[in-house]
Design goal:
Blueprint lengths: L25 H16 L4 E3 L9 E4 L7 E12 L2 E5 L7 E7 L2 E7 L5 E7 L1 H13 L13 E2 L9
Antiparallel strand pairs: 1-2, 2-3, 3-6, 4-5, 5-8, 6-7
């Protein structure tokens, strides 16, 4: 496994549509492992292949660092509810914006074994699925933000 360079806003690859994965090859397995390692190292909860410079329809997500998901050729087939909140992105480091997303989604995709699966997500998982699938279409959260993109403000730790 290896860390990959995360592409940042302004890199033209982030605005391109990704191609379907037709078959599982060794280099795709390596890419998926590298994407998880890169996402965890950056303290992210999701990462899409174009964020590491690969125009393939592949996403990795782990919102609680206990339930990793691999989504290959994902499609949202159902969405309902609504949630509005701050959203960040590894490709826009140090920034957040307010985005409204569905509170519940069902996503059909292939897993790392190229088996068709359904992933149902609520709350943060639903937000992460929507956010990462947008990357596969060349869309960044800042395109959907309600209001300005802001610098992340970290709270100062309290002294004992």
């Amino acid at each position: 496994m290896a860390l990959r360079k995360i592409r940042c806003d302004g890199d033209e690859i982030l605005r391109k549509k990704c191609k379907e994965v037709k078959e599982m090859k060794e280099r795709i397995k390596i890419l998926i492992d590298d994407m998880f390692e890169t996402m965890y190292a950056a303290n992210g909860v999701g990462l899409a292949a174009p964020q590491v410079g690969i125009l393939k329809r592949i996403v990795v997500i782990d919102v609680d660092y206990e339930n990793p998901y691999v989504l290959i050729n994902p499609v949202i087939v159902e969405r309902d509810g609504e949630q509005t909140g701050d959203e960040g992105c590894l490709s826009l480091p140090g920034k957040v914006g307010t985005v409204t997303r569905p509170n519940h989604v069902i996503c059909k995709c292939l897993n790392e074994n190229m088996e068709e699966v359904e992933i149902e997500g609520e709350g943060l998982l639903a937000r992460a699925i929507c956010h990462e699938l947008d990357h596969l279409e060349g869309v960044l959260y800042k395109d959907l933000a309600e209001g300005p993109i802001r610098d992340v403000e970290y709270a100062e730790p309290e002294e004992d």
